Structure formats: structure tokens, C-alpha cells
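Q: I have 135 residues here and want to know how they pack in 3D. Can you give me a structure?
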Amino acid sequence: MEPINGLYGFLYDENGQQVQLTQEFDSDLDYNKETYTVPGKFLKSHKVTGGEASGSFTILKTDSRLQKKIAENPHGKYNYVGKLADPTANGEEAILFIGVSFDGTKLLNYNVEEFVELDFDFTFDDFRFLQTIDG
């Protein structure tokens, strides 16, 4: 058993096109919980009552396509697929992120001594595992 190498991580947009030189990707589920007391029990109990889903990714810019899409349609919702495909792993992991809504976008930024890097924060409405890596 070996750790999975992030070098083989990919992100695809709603058209199946790989997102430009994705350097980092992160997605999270945060659960809302209510606390309640059970008579005779010292510790509080908790029940999940909902949740929120969010994420972020960083790219090295190669064109303006993604920034333009976000800036021209701030209400847009999209589907993206994140994938880990390390050839030494026991399979591939792929997750469909449904209803991706971007929090904003940079219109133009640069530093003359660095590659142009862009960060995108987003929320999503649902997800589905398309493939999993079984150990």
C-alpha cells in the first residue's frame, strides 16, 4: 500500500475539458449539528441537521476562459469532476460536484517575476462519487 500522488489530480469542467493547469484542489462537507440532552447521560448528544459544501482550487493561468465565464454569469451553476488517477493506486477516484457556484473571480492580476496563479473559491449543491479507490 502506497500513498496517492497528487501529481495525478485533475479537474474537468461541465464540457469535460480539463481546467487549466490545476495546481491544488480542495472540497469540504461541513455538517450543522444540534445539541440535545439525554436524561441521565453526562455528555451532550448531537444530531446532524444539515450541511454545507464548499471548495477551492488554484490554477496557473493559460487563458481567460474561466474568469470570463464567472464574471459574465455570476449566477451560473456548473458541474465539475475532480479526479485522482495515480497509476500506482488501486483504481481511480472521481467525484462529480453538482451546482458549483463561484464566490467571485480576479479580473486581472500579475507579477512580472512569477507565473500568473488564480484561486477560485466555490460552493456546491450536491456531489456523487463516480469512482472510488478500494484498499
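Q: Anything worth noting?
A: The chain has a mean pLDDT of 96. The two ends are 8 Å apart (CA to CA).
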